[in-house]
Structures are given as structure tokens and as C-alpha cells.
Amino acid sequence: MARPPMPPGTWGHIKRTQVSPGRWYADGRCRAENGRTRRMRRYTPEGVVDKTGAAAERVLIAALRSACESTGDLDGTTTIDELWAAYRVGLVDAGRAPRTLIRYDEVAKFISAQLGGWRLHEVSTQMLETFLRSVAEVNGAGNAKTTRSVLSGMFSMATRLGVVKTNPVRDTKPPTSLKKKPTRALEPEQLAKLLTDLRESTIPCPAVGKGGVPLPSKYRVPTVAEYCASVDLVDVITMFAATGVRTSELIGMTWPNLDLQTKTITLSEKATRVPGVGLALVSRDDDPKNTHRTLALPDFAVTMLRARKLAMPPNAHQVLFPSSAGTIRDADALNVQWRRVRAALGLDWVTGHTFRRTVASLLDESKVGARITADQLGHASPSMTMDKYMSRGKVRPEVAAILDRAVRQTASTADEQQGLAE
């Protein structure tokens, strides 16, 4: 008669084997809650003198218990690489955006390089915090934050499935940047001058390398105006200034969504790179960075678009700002072009996001509510608009005037009361 299988969640006989004096390994088999049976081996921990193999057995029992508590295909002996593979399948099934998957794949390389072989029952908060600190030092705080987010999602799934009891990422210290750049926006005069310089500036505009350093050229270097005209940058920056939209939203704008009569444009798609497809226009209702909305356009943008519609040949995707080949414009190529212009004009700090902050600050200065500004920028929360995009720390003469009036009024009232008392 065949031996009956072990009940799920249990393990069998443990065998101890001596490797050398004071060092043993323990073998055993367990059957997890998913019905799978597996053999496991653990050695005496480093630095421990194990006379009988009891220390090795204790380590094995802890691993067996962790493996048996699993309620799915994952268990305590699953490696972090295996957990990432399972987690990514869940991301795809959940319909996460292609750009999100690409970004997560990038940080998964950091995780795999340093932690990929560790098993889940071996992972601690201290280990993960040390790892995140090294990512921040080598790859920057931004990559460390995204890495922590990915790890947290992975272990959240493992916790939900009962593979681990708690999420070890939860108590790690969030990575922070040592140097926080202050929120900065263009002043109205600076914005007007920039738009003029893009059309008229005769300042040389050489190609730049790392750090914005001009690269030598044996050919004649074009002026800012000549270069902007050659790469179709003037209208793009004008539209940034007119709307404050994200780069992916701007290069995803299409002619069918533009209404020059009502002076509005509807944002329903964004340009993104899809694995296996290339650049494509994507529309997702659940994408927080592609909020579907209709924006009113200022007159200077309408004038530019009217002229552009007459002069520009049609393209297959019907986008407003295609590449020179008539295809969807690449955001990375656009950033390279703008980096060259801003270096020539001495505006290295002006990025695509600067125009978003500029629009937010101009609306704030005009006493437009934060909710309206959030709608313009496509933010789900007005508080984020106020915290991240509106200029702070400005000199506020109106505050001094309010305080001055209050003090003068209080002093005048006190003098009147003293006069009546006398």
C-alpha cells in the first residue's frame, strides 16, 4: 500500500548531516498549501558552532514553516527574481500603461543585480534599506524612490498571498534627494522674451554634450532662430507656454481635436513608446498623466495654429507637431533639441516642466483658484498643484500693505478711544 502524502502545511522527517566539526546541514521535505512538495536544505549559520546540527535544523524548520504557510504558487523559498516575474504578470493583467512597465523593468534591473537571488524568508527591512541607500548613491534619489515603490508592490502582493507575514519595505526610510531644487517659473517678461528669441535671436546655437557644454564643430554653427526653425521648435514651445500640458500630451495633440472657432483643444491621447510597436498615440481613461479634458486657447496660440494649419502638409497620425518625417514626434529627441536651445540662451534651468509651473504661477498671480489651475494642468488633486507647481517664497508687497492697514487702523482706533477718555 502506497504511503499517504503529507497533509498540506506540514513537513516530514529532518535529517542532519555533519560537514565538518561544528558545521552541519539539515534536509527535509515539506508540502505547501498549494499542494506542492519540495525538498529543502539549510546549513549551520556562519559564526555559529553547531555541535549536534541543532542550529542547522532550527534554520531549516523556520524555512519549512515559511514555505508551508504559502497559499499560492509562491512560498518563502521563492527568490526575489521569481517574485518580480509574478508581480509583473499581475501588472500586465491589470492593464498598466506601457511606459509604466518600461520604467518598472528599468528599476527591476537594480533589484535583480543586488537582491535577485535572495529568498523571501531571508529578506529584512534592514537589508532593503541598505540596498535602497546604495541605489540612491549610485543611480540617484529618483531611481531609488521608484525602486522602493516597485519593491513595496512586490512584497504587498506576497503579503496578500500569505507568503510573508509583513511587508518589509513598508518600514524602510523613503529615499530623499540631498539637494532639493526650488520650484521655479518664468516671469511674464522672461516668457515673452523667450518666445521672441526663438524667432529672432542671432546667438550661436551649437550642439551640446554632457552638462550643456558646447561641442566643437567644423561647420558653421546656426543661430538660435535658424536652429529652431530647422527643427520646428518655435510652435512647440509656443504651445507649451499657451497650455502648460505635459510633453506626451502636447506631441499627442491632433487636428481633429482642435476647434479654431471655439478656440479650444481636446486632450484625449498622449504619445508614448509601446514595446514591440514603437511610438503610438494611446488613450486610457485611468491614466493619471493623460487626463481627458478640453482647454481654452489664448489668442497668440490660435494665431500660430491657424498659420500652421495652412502651411503644414498632412501626416498619417494627424498630429499637430509631427517629426520631420511626418511621424509621431519622439519626446526624447524633442528634449535634446530644447536642451541645445536653452543652453545657448543661458536658460539651462528651463525644462518642459518649467512651462507647467509658469502657467500655474501666472494663474495663481491672477487669483484663479487652485481647482481651475489643477484642471488646466490635468492634476487629480488641487493640493498637488499648489505644493509642486505654484511659485513660493516671492516678495509679497500686498501682504505688507494689508498688515500696514491693519496696524494703522488699530492705532487710529486706540487714539480715538484715548481722546474720548480724556
Key attributes of the depicted protein:
single chain, 422 residues, alpha+beta, hpI Integrase, Chain A, 3 domains, 4-stranded antiparallel sheet, 3-stranded antiparallel sheet, 9 strands, 47% helix
**CATH architecture call of the largest domain:** Orthogonal Bundle
Strand content: 5-15%
User: What is the chains' assembly state?
Assistant: single chain
Helix and strand content put the structural class at alpha+beta
Q: CATH superfamily of the largest domain, please?
A: Intergrase catalytic core
Alpha-carbon distance between the two ends: 116 Å
Instruction: Note the main sheet.
Output: 4 strands, antiparallel
Number of β-strand runs? 9
**Domain tally:** 3
Rg, Cα atoms, Å: 31 Å
Element pattern in H and E = EEEEHHHHHHHHHEEEEEHHHHHH
Helix content: 40-55%
CATH class placement of the largest domain: Mainly Alpha
How many helical stretches? Answer: 15
CATH fold-level assignment of the largest domain? hpI Integrase, Chain A
> Which stretches of 5+ consecutive residues score pLDDT under 50?
none
- Write down the overall geometry: elongated
Give average pLDDT, whole number: 84
Pfam families: Phage_integrase
Keywords: DNA recombination, DNA-binding
Domain Tyr recombinase: 181-404
Protein name: Site-specific integrase
